[in-house]
Specification:
By secondary structure, the protein is an alpha/beta fold. It contains 13 helices and 12 strands.
Length: 338
């Protein structure tokens, strides 16, 4: 199918004291209708800034300085604020990590769903909207929806608030759903329920879904394909099964080393292997491959020459000069000795 969302060569900069900081540097990815794309990276990798760009929510000192974002072929970067607001209410919806920042604390949950519905369909009666709000709360598994519809966000638990936000997000059957760390603030059991809910939302609405996370476990659970970001760039992209079976970027291998496996005896073990070093200071990104200061197989060339995102296997791209050497490598091979 044709991509629903297509991002090409996106560049986003933030003005700072020492000049512009490039938070997103040439990002490209696309999502087809009904596909769930996981976008993975540490904080500061540019994954959220890319999503905010799609939503038209980049504000000063941030600025989109290059690239294209197309929704069903329509160029979103050329739209006015007003046109973009309309798209946000109808075709594209967002689910945030913290529902308290997204929900209005002084409006009942029901009133917020009704507002979303009537913004989309001005002819919908209040009664019909209320009925639909109850239906939506039911569909996201909120118990006693007839009572809950009249309650305020603070009367909901964290998990219930996340369900309410999903209800608002899917109220107008958006074509594209963007969820930024939707389960990070939740405990493990509720996390699994919310992921199920996002999968149901995709199944019932056919929406393309972008799920932004630092957690490869979430990607394994939910996504069809995955984009791995580092220092404002895409470093690897593949189908989820392919990425987990045959990763072709050292950073991805490092992330995989941090994912608990059935071999880890103690589930509470925080000492799982993780990538040594820290994410780069984006005001002074490393030359060449931005991952080189942390990469166990970096060579001289990596310090000067930036690797392009190139095909590593069919449908699989990696931005590493030595991607071919990683065939058959495991995270433990690569990171055990560092
Ligand atoms: Fe490591 Fe070099 Fe590949 Fe970058 S290009 S990930 S530094 S081997
Ligand atoms: Mg973020």
């Amino acid at each position: 199918a044709e991509p629903l969302l297509e991002i090409r060569d996106l560049v986003v900069e933030f003005a700072g004291d020492e000049g512009a900081v490039r938070a997103v540097d040439g990002v490209a990815y696309s999502v087809r209708p009904g596909e769930i794309l996981g976008v993975v990276g540490e904080s500061g990798s540019g994954k959220s800034v890319t999503a905010m760009s799609v939503l038209g929510l980049i504000r000063r000192p941030g600025r989109i300085v290059g690239g294209e974002i197309r929704l069903r072929g329509r160029d979103l970067l050329g739209l006015t604020h007003r046109q973009m607001r309309e798209i946000r209410g109808n075709q594209v919806a967002m689910i945030f990590q913290d529902p308290m920042t997204a929900l209005n604390p002084v409006m009942t949950v029901g009133a917020q769903i009704i507002e979303a519905l009537r913004l989309h369909d001005r002819k919908m009666s209040r009664a019909a909207a209320r009925e639909r709000a109850v239906e939506l709360l039911t569909s996201v598994g909120v118990p006693q929806p007839e009572v809950r519809v009249g309650q305020y966000p603070h009367e909901f638990s964290g998990g219930m608030r996340q369900r309410a936000m999903i209800a608002i997000a899917i109220a107008n059957r958006p074509q594209l759903l963007i969820a930024d760390e939707p389960t990070t603030a939740l405990d493990v059991t509720v996390q699994a329920q919310v992921l199920d809910l996002l999968r149901d939302a995709r199944d019932t609405t056919g929406a393309a879904t972008v799920i932004i996370t630092h957690d490869l476990g979430v990607v394994a659970e939910l996504a069809d394909s995955v984009v791995v970001m580092y220092a404002g760039r895409v470093v690897e992209q593949a189908a989820v099964s392919e990425l987990f079976a045959a990763p072709r970027h050292p950073y991805t291998l490092g992330l995989l080393a941090g994912v608990p496996t059935s071999e880890d005896e103690d589930e509470d073990d925080d000492d799982l292997a993780s990538i040594p070093g820290t994410p780069p200071d984006m005001a002074h990104p490393p030359a060449g491959c931005a991952f080189h200061p942390r990469c166990p197989i970096a060579r001289d060339r990596c310090r000067t020459e930036r690797p392009p995102l190139a095909q590593a296997a069919p449908g699989h791209r990696s931005a590493c000069h030595y991607a071919d050497e990683l065939v058959g490598a495991t995270a433990r091979d690569l990171f055990a000795t560092v």
